[in-house]
Design brief:
The chain is α/β, with parallel strands linked by helices and 463 residues long. The chain has 15 helices and 12 strands. Strands 3-4-5-6-7-8-9-10 form an 8-stranded parallel β-barrel, surrounded by 7 helices. Strand 1 and strand 2 form a beta hairpin. Helix 1 packs antiparallel against helix 10, helix 5 packs parallel to helix 6 and helix 13 packs across helix 14.
Length: 463
Amino acid sequence: MENRRVKMNEHTNLLQLEEHMYPLVDVKTPNVFRNLFPYDEVPKIAFNDRIVPHHMPDEIWITDTTFRDGQQSRAPYTTEQIVRIYDYLHRLGGPNGKIRQCEFFLYSKKDRDAVYKCLERGYAFPEVTSWIRASKKDFELVKEIGLKETGILVSCSDYHIFYKMKMTRKQAMEHYLSIVKECLETGISPRCHLEDITRADIYGYVIPFCLELMNLMERYQIPIKVRCCDTMGYGVNYPGAVIPRSVPGIIYGIMTHAGVPSELIEWHGHNDFYKAVSNSTTAWLYGASGVNCSLFGIGERTGNTPLEAMVFEYAQLRGSLDGMDTTVITELAEYYEKEIGYRIPSRTPFVGRNFNVTRAGIHADGLLKNEEIYNIFDTDKFLNRPALVSVSNTSGLAGIAHWINSYYHLTDEKKLSKDTPLVAMVKAWVDQQYEEGRVTVITDEELTGVIARCCEELHYDLA
C-alpha cells in the first residue's frame, strides 16, 4: 500500500490511489465460468452489486464492420457495391467524421480491389483499415497495401485459447504479442480484437494482456487499440452484474486497471440476446470512445449492432447529430433493397417499410390532427420518410386522407381533409374490398392505381 502512487484523475478531478498490477494467471485447466454458462441451461446473469461510475469520453464515434463481419453472414459484396456503400458512409458520417473507420478483408482480389478504390477516394473519414488473423502470412497483406492500421484477432476466453487454439494463456499471449510487435516495428498501428471477452477471465488474462499492450505502446510510441468483442452477445448493462458479463465492469477494468485511454477502447457487440444496441450505448457511457457496427445489423448469427441505431443513440446522448446526414440512412436502405436485393424486415426501426406506419383507424385520426402524437420524431426531416398510415378496413376517412397527404408529399394548402370527395371515393373502394372478404392491408401499388382512376374521374390533380 505504501508504494502505490496517488495521482489526479483528469476526468473526475479526484485523487485516486494507483491500482495494483495484475499479473497473468496462467491456469492449467480452462476457466469457462460454468456457473454462468452451463451449456445445457440458459446462461445466468449474476450480481455482486459492485457499481462502477459513468465515464463518458470527451468524444465518441462509430466505426463500421459492414465489409468484414457484415460479409461473414451473406453473399460477398461486389467491388462496386463496397465502394458505393463506402461513399454513403462518408456522407452519413458528415464533415466531423462521426463514422471514423471502416474495416476490410484483404484475402480476395475483389476485397483488395475495393480497398484500393476506397483509398483512391481520398476521404479523411471513414479511414480504411483491415482485419487479419494473428499470423505473419496475413500481416504481409497489410504491409503490401500500405494501410496505417490493422485489426488483429486475439481471442481471449479460455474457450478459444484452450479449445480452439490448443494453447495455454501464456502461449497465446506470447503469440499475440509477437504479431503486435511486428506491426509496431513497421510503423503500423494494431487494433487488438479481444474475441469472446464476455466469457474471458478479465483480471486473470484480459487486463494483464492489455497492460502488456500499453507497455509496447509506450515503447514504440504508436497507438494500440483494444476492441472488446462481445462475440456471443452475453454482455449485459445491468448495474451490479458480475464480470465477465458486465459491460460497465469490462470497460472500467480495461480503462482503470490496464490504463487504456478511452480513445483506444472500442466495443463490438452481437445481438444474440437482443442487447447489441443497449450494450454499445453502455460502452460509450462507461468509457469507450468507439462502438463498432454494421449497416442494418447484418453480421454473424443474429448480427452486429446496427450502425443506423447508434447514429440516433449518439444524437440522443449528445443532443446533436454533429454533422451526420441521417437522410443517407434511407438512401442506403433503398440501395440495399433495389440494387443488392437485401430485404429489410418491414418493422426494423428507422429503415423498415413500416417503421413509422400506423394501421389503427383511431391512431390515424390522431396523426391527421397532429403527427407528433404517433410519430417518434420528424421522420420526414431526418429520414425523408413522412409518417404514413397503412390503409385497411380500420383506417377510416382520416387514415386514407393522411396516407394520400404523406405519400404524395402534399403541401399544407393542398392537403386533403377527410371530407374531400377524393378521399370518400377511395374509401368506398377500400370498403368494397373488405366486404368481399379481403383480410390483408391495401398495398401502396393498389392505392396509387385507385387514386389515379379516382382523380381522373373527378378531374382532380394531386400535383
